[in-house]
Amino acid sequence: MTIRPWQELGDETLVRYKVFHVRKSRRRSPRTGADFGFFLIDTPDWVNVLPLTDDGQVVLVRQYRHGSARVSLELPGGLIDPHEREPAAAAARELREETGFVATELRPLGVMNPNPSMMTNRCFAFLATGCRRDGELRMDPGEDLEVVTVPVAELDGLLVRGEIDHAIVLATIAFWRASQNR
Known about the structure:
Layout: E1 7-16, E2 21-28, E3 35-42, E4 46-53, E5 57-65, E6 70-74, E7 77-79, H1 87-99, E8 101-102, E9 105-112, E10 123-133, E11 145-151, H2 155-160, H3 167-180
């Protein structure tokens, strides 16, 4: 069987918030001809950055996450601002704001769909090399961050022990590992 796109029949915006909109989208199945309603979340695209220092450290952040109701160990990242034309600009900004670090080189690792079953955005993953401290954090009012550096050799252990469990962070690390094998 060949999987085909579903016909779009219309959308109804249900709610608009600062960083996302929820809508109900009506679609028709090309296989059965039946109409279905789907809830979709529209949000700006995101970036995620894997920062490496010249002495072999990965720069991470700890922050409280309301969805899991716990402190999470993650890579720096966030929304691409409307004025930012390139994801790399957002990656450099998020790295600087969330960690106080800057990179000598920023290289794209890949692009992912965070949850294609209901979210319409993409996340751009970057590798930042030559990272060095350049000042204090510039946290958004709604975030509290702690910068943590760990040796690259300890990264896999953090994954195995579940200390890093954010799916987009895991995907960014997978992109990086795959890029090392090219």
